[in-house]
Specification:
about 350 residues; alpha+beta; four-stranded antiparallel β-sheet; oxidoreductase; metal-binding
Amino acid sequence: MEETNKNVLGDCFTSAMALTESGVPHVPTRYILPPSQRPVLSPSIGTGSINLPVIDLSFLHEPLLRPSVIHEIEMACKEFGFFQVTNHGISSSVVKDALDAATRFFDLPADEKMLLVSDDVHTPVRYGTSINHSTDSVHYWRDFIKHYSHPLSKWIDLWPSNPPCYKEKVGKYSEATHVLHKQLMEAISESLGLEKSYLQEEIEEGSQVMAVNCYPACPEPEIALGMPPHSDFSSLTILLQSSQGLQIKDKNNNWVCVPYIEGALIVQLGDQVEVMSNGVYKSVVHRVTVNKDVNRLSFASLHSLPMNKKISPAPQLVNEEKPAAYGDFSFNDFLEYISRNDLTKQRFIDTVKKNKF
């Protein structure tokens, strides 16, 4: 299998980290964005004009205070499709250990990581660079290891065996984010006027993809990106970042820098929640910038319904005044789409909208 993967990508594969380590003074041509797509990296962008929501989840467990937190979540979902959470129940040691394991993985020799390389989006464990190295017209300054993570017992044996700590440390973080996702989906369902157990069975049996990303220091961050503008297919993405780099698009189509908050996790609404809510909530469009000085790590834990389970607008949110605005889709439908299409040209969610609005 490893030899097949190497042959598919051939000698054209060069990771972003390898370029950084080689000391290139300029980014190669294939990473240079058209001028209209280049980021504005001023530290003041988005920081003085807008307050992004930060929600203390500890109050979810207090019956008298829970309604107030549900309201905060509702407002954040309507305004941004995004919020940060504190007191989320995942210990700082579990977070630190996961970041340590990721650092050790990306520090491995290139030949070791290449054993997991693949350009097949259906592969349950794959190492790669950019979005899809073999098809991207413009490449992105990112290396990643992606693996299915729920149920953990089904997938963990396929995860990297090197570094030796990887399975244990990232496994604990994966399980903790799965628990957090269930709590968040209960709260989001409540905020929409649904039973908090709405989709409970599908969520428990659902899929989880852990995308562990390394955005190496980049010699020219003003003309490149770590990830292009996109929304996630998932119900929710729970994001851990080691430093600032994420930007989200607000309702006025302005890019807003998401600040790094020690101990906080980022919650991003995905396409599945947009469809479930019948457009009451929208999935957040986001991108990733890079910097000259440090490697940035992130864990994007993407949670969804089971692979072939279709998501559709909740019947309680469909009526004569607001008919169903979306068709249904599954995680597998999304994978089929990205295997044939360029996500930078059209968002997947647009393909399931019944009307443009």
